[in-house]
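Batch manifest, entry 17 of 40.
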Amino acid sequence: MSAEVNASYSTQDQTDLLIKKRSPFTDFMRKLYSQKLAFMAGVVVVLLLLLAVIGPYITPYNPTKYDYSAVLQGPSLKHWAGTDTYGRDIFSRILAGTRISLFVAIISVMIGACIGTFLGIISGFYGKWLDGLIMRVCDVLFAFPGMILAIGIIALLGPGLSNVVIAVAIFSIPNFARIVRSTTLSVKSMLYIEATHSIGAKNRRLIWKHIFPGTLPSIIVFFTMRIGNTILTAASLSFLGLGAQPPTPEWGALLSSGRDYLNTAPHVAAFPGLAIFITVLAFNLFGDGLRDVLDPKIKQ
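Output type: structure tokens
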């Protein structure tokens, strides 16, 4: 009997030891893999990022070269997604445009995240008049729909991808500021923060060593989900002629070039639209899965 008890304790000890030895990354991947849809979306996101790096180098045809002998051809073995009104291979242009669309989205969201995170942390940590000032500025930005605000900014700065980055970054700032402020207030009220402050820790150390790491899960989740929305916004601006200018193979510009041929050559607009749809859906599903994995409230 005692031998069986000892054996059961030994097995339990081994199990506990394996759990302790499991790295945080392994634990994260195990939880993410348990959510099949989010995991598949993550695979798609990784493939898209890979295409953004190597896409322009593996295009079957020159994405900007005209070929008037192949104008508006439908999908075939030679041209998988057909050709556009200038005979350019649409599949090659979509591959080349992956880097442009993802670059615009990631850079603009990164700028908005950095500024918004800084404003949100100091707003939540210091409070009082500083909190009121920052939040009122955010309220002013929230008063305008994101697309209208972006169009207004580009109207002042002029069309172009660089100005799209600035416009999207500006209306991303209040979103990050609000989320980080809320998380900062929650982390700030925790007992270990009060204990650290009571032993004389400086505010700078409290913010960057204790509070900022506590806000990272929320930032990562919203950052991922924001990329999908930003791709859609940037594509919409290019569709309206305010973003990428011809012959740049940006997805929104490709979609815009095909709107006049929806009846005669629907593939010109269909394939860029499909690329935008898949990318936005993948980032949103992946971000939703990250929220379930990283949100401590959901864990409980």
